[in-house]
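Open question from group meeting: does this chain pack into something compact, or does most of it stay loose? Before anyone orders reagents, we agreed to write out a predicted structure and look at it together. Recording both the input and the output here so the notebook holds the full record.
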Amino acid sequence: MNAQSSNRRARWARREKIAEAVEIARELGLDVAGFQISPDGSVSVFESRATPTPVPGVASSDFDRFEAQL
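Structure tokens returned:
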């Protein structure tokens, strides 16, 4: 890491930018399930069809697998 990158401050997205990103996604016909905000100010929108649907009886995460062993 160089000196220039270590002096940069996080530029979190403002509420208006997040609302605009969600509004644009909805206008494009996406069913917005959530969003992610990065320190560089970028906003990622997630659609509900892109999120995995839990299957009953199948562990979907490490936590679920651990919990099943208890």
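Observations to bring back to the group:
The radius of gyration is 18 Å.
DSSP finds three helices and two strands in the chain.
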